[in-house]
C-alpha cells in the first residue's frame, strides 16, 4: 500500500484535508510532498467525479454533535431571554427611582433645627 492509496482511502471515508496532511507528515513525508500528494488526489477525485462519503460513525457523531449544539443554543437563548427580562425589570425600577427623586427634588425643603 502506498501513501496515495492511504490518501484515497481517507478521502473516500470523508476525512478532512488537514487530518490527512497531519497523518502523512507524522508518517514521515515532508510537508510540501504531503500537500502535493493531497492536491494530486483531489484532482484525480474531481476528474473521476468521485465523492467522499463519511462513514456511518462520522455521520452519527455529526448528528450527536448537532443535537448537543442545538440544545446548547436553546439554553443560551433561554438564559439571554431571562437576562433581558431581568434587565427590563431593573430599568423600570430605575425609572421609578428617578421619578421619585425628581418628585423629592421639587418639594420645598424644610429647615432642620
Could you please describe the fold and organization of this structure?
The chain has 113 residues and is mainly alpha-helical. The protein has two domains: 3-48; 66-113. 79% of the residues lie in helices and 0% in strands. The protein is built from four helices and no strands. It has helices at 3-12, 17-26, 31-48, 56-106. The protein is rod-shaped, with a radius of gyration of 32 Å. The mean pLDDT is 87.
Note the overall shape: rod-shaped
> Measured on Cα atoms, how large is the radius of gyration?
32 Å
Order of helices and strands: HHHH
What's the number of extended β-strand segments? 0
Share in helix: over 70%
Largest sheet: none
Supply the helix-strand structural class.
mainly alpha
Roughly what fraction of the amino acids lie in strands? under 5%
Termini distance? 102 Å
Low-confidence stretches: none
**What would the average pLDDT be, to the nearest integer?**
87
Number of domains: 2
Number of helices: 4
Quickly list its features:
mainly alpha
Blueprint of the fold:
Elements: H1 3-12, H2 17-26, H3 31-48, H4 56-106
Q: Could you provide a short overview of the structure?
A:
The protein has 113 residues and is mostly helical. Helices cover 79% and strands 0% of the residues.
Amino acid at each position: 500500500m502506498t501513501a496515495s492509496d492511504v490518501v484515497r482511502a481517507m478521502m473516500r471515508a470523508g476525512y478532512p484535508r488537514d487530518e490527512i496532511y497531519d497523518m502523512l507528515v507524522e508518517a514521515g513525508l515532508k510537508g510540501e510532498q504531503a500537500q502535493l500528494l493531497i492536491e494530486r488526489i483531489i484532482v484525480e477525485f474531481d476528474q473521476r467525479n468521485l465523492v467522499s462519503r463519511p462513514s456511518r460513525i462520522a455521520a452519527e457523531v455529526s448528528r450527536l454533535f448537532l443535537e448537543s449544539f442545538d440544545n446548547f443554543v436553546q439554553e443560551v437563548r433561554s438564559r439571554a431571554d431571562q437576562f433581558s427580562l431581568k434587565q427590563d425589570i431593573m430599568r423600570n425600577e430605575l425609572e421609578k427611582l428617578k421619578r421619585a427623586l425628581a418628585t423629592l427634588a421639587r418639594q420645598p425643603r424644610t429647615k432642620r433645627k
